[in-house]
Amino acid sequence: MPRPAAALAGLDKVTARVTPLGGRVGETLNFGTLRITIRACLVRGPDQPADQAVYLDISDTRDPRHDFGGWMLLSAPSVSMLAHPIYDVRLSGCRA
After folding, report:
1. Which of these, 53, 58, 78, 77, lies nearest to 68 by C-alpha position?
2. Structural domain that includes position 61
3. CB-based burial of residue 10 (10 Å sphere; 0-12 exposed, 13-18 middle, 19+ buried)?
4. Which of 1, 30, 35, 50 is most enclosed, with most CB atoms within 10 A?
5. How many domains does the chain have?
6. pLDDT of 90 above 90
7. pLDDT tens digit string along 14-56?
8. What's the rounded Cα separation, in Å, for the pair 95 and 12?
9. Is 17 exposed, middle or buried (0-12, 13-18, 19+ CB in 10 A)?
10. What pTM did the predictor assign?
11. Cα–Cα distance between 90 and 9 in angstroms, integer?
């Protein structure tokens, strides 16, 4: 079931600071040198095991080798994650 917004958490691995991020589907967020575009946020229906997923396009304005595009799952963040030396981005949940 689609949701119109996503809540994310951005971690700066250098300072160990976590920054809450949030936006609507289609919106682009800035976190450090990252530009994060939320493409979709989905929640499983009530008749299925609880889980949420977000589709993100993430680009690094300084180094395109660290760009990411794909789904992130709330229940399994390590399955599909951003491979960046300084930043980490995770899904906190989809919002109505």
Report:
1. 58
2. 5-95
3. buried
4. 35
5. 1
6. yes
7. 999 999 999 999 999 999 999 999 999 999 999 999 999 999 9
8. 24
9. exposed
10. 0.92
11. 5
